[in-house]
Design brief:
With 233 residues, the protein is an all-alpha fold. Helices cover 68% and strands 0% of the residues. Helix 1 crosses helix 4, helix 2 crosses helix 3 and helix 4 packs antiparallel against helix 8. The mean pLDDT is 85.
Length: 233
């Protein structure tokens, strides 16, 4: 392993413990905000969606524990230093949670009638979006959850970054918009369609910070024209 990606045994132990705790809480947390409003455990759309999320997540975690554990350590940082980014993160979390709660209520009261093949198609789109995010992680070891500039960080301009400046957000956008349909709810699209606006605000603020703090980022923006969606924005 490259020294840039190495961690001490103590750091690895602490990282694995942190990941194990967070990962074990995901099914419990999602279960509460979906199954409680649904009022039943008979919800095949939710189980399929969880499988689409959890199985690739496990594989990705093991991959980076072996290849780039420092990347995983950066991904576990959740406290934003920028006040505007912190506010956007809180707002997006509220919308995200409300969207999942609505899917549970929709299932309980049968507000939507999403056909099986549409649900499966949405699940495949969620999986595709996860693959996009995985390739971003492979190409950019500094793709942190928060806005920060790390020592020795360089501008990434190859791979997916040649197409748009924020390919990870593109993957997240696709995942967000497909999630309500994958869970069998049209009504949950209402809160989820607000999330692209939050992503846009996050990107604009992030680019200002990167242009001021990361050498070569301004030149990269001039070379790669589109921020999020090719040929659109």
């Amino acid at each position: 392993m490259n020294k840039e990606y190495e961690m001490t045994s103590q750091e690895m132990k602490a990282l694995k413990k942190k990941i194990a705790i967070r990962f074990s809480l995901i099914p419990l947390f999602l279960g509460l905000i979906i199954f409680l409003p649904a009022g039943t455990l008979i919800f095949w759309q939710a189980y399929t969606y969880f499988a689409i999320l959890v199985i690739p997540m496990v594989l990705v975690i093991f991959y980076f524990l072996n290849k780039d554990p420092k990347f995983l350590e950066r991904r576990t940082r959740a406290k934003e230093k920028e006040k505007k980014q912190n506010l956007l993160s809180i707002f997006s979390t509220v919308i995200f949670l409300s969207g999942f709660i609505i899917t549970g209520l929709d299932h309980r009261f049968a507000w939507s009638n999403v056909l099986v093949y549409i649900v499966i198609t949405a699940d495949l789109i969620v999986l595709l979006s996860y693959l996009i995010i995985f390739f971003v992680f492979k190409q950019n070891s500094y793709a942190s959850r928060i806005i920060e500039i790390n020592e020795n960080q360089k501008v990434i301009s190859t791979g997916l970054y040649r197409i748009v400046r924020h390919p990870m957000y593109l993957g997240i956008l696709i995942m967000f918009l497909a999630t309500p349909i994958a869970l069998g709810s049209y009504w949950a699209l209402i809160p989820f369609v607000v999330l692209p606006v939050i992503l846009i605000l996050r990107i604009l603020n992030e680019e200002k910070i990167l242009s001021d703090s990361l050498e070569g980022y301004h030149e990269y923006c001039q070379k790669t024209r589109y921020r999020l969606i090719p040929f659109i924005w």
